[in-house]
Amino acid sequence: MPELVAINILIGDRNYRIKIDPTDEETVRKAVKVIQEKILEFKVQFAGKDMQDYIAMVLVWFATERANPSAITSLPADLQSRLDAMENALDAVFPDEV
């Protein structure tokens, strides 16, 4: 098993320290950048909401886009594979808990 590296990511107004495979770092950072950009986009569209609302909107946007990948027009073509890698990295750090 490869050695995991710890990185800090910022989502919304919170910092998270996660451990990932070094080969996934670029993918995770790019995905976080897309998330941050979407949060800013929603902040402009829906002024006056709190950060939790913006993050929830981004999650709904992501789930909708993932269900209909052909609807993604403004994102790089390889975004799905990068987001899948990020999801796998997060699953490794945060196992399914209910």
Layout of helices and strands, plus pairs?
Blueprint lengths: L4 E7 L2 E7 L4 H21 L5 H17 L11 H15 L5
Antiparallel strand pairs: 1-2
Helix pairs in contact: 1-2, 1-3
Task: Give an account of the 3D structure.
This protein is of the alpha+beta class and 98 residues long. The chain has one domain. 54% of the residues lie in helices and 14% in strands. It contains three helices and two strands. Strands 1-2 form a two-stranded antiparallel ribbon.
What is the average per-residue confidence, as pLDDT, rounded to a whole number?
83
Structural class: alpha+beta
Percent of residues in helical segments? 40-55%
Distance between the termini: 27 Å
**How many discrete structural domains?**
1
Number of helices: 3
As a percent range, the share of strand residues is: 5-15%
- Low-pLDDT ranges: none
Q: Which shape, going by the Cα principal axes?
A: globular
Could you state the order of secondary-structure elements as H and E? Answer: EEHHH
Oligomer: single chain
| Count of extended strands | 2
How are the strands of the biggest sheet laid out side by side? Answer: 1-2
Radius of gyration: 14 Å
Most strands sheet: 2 strands, antiparallel
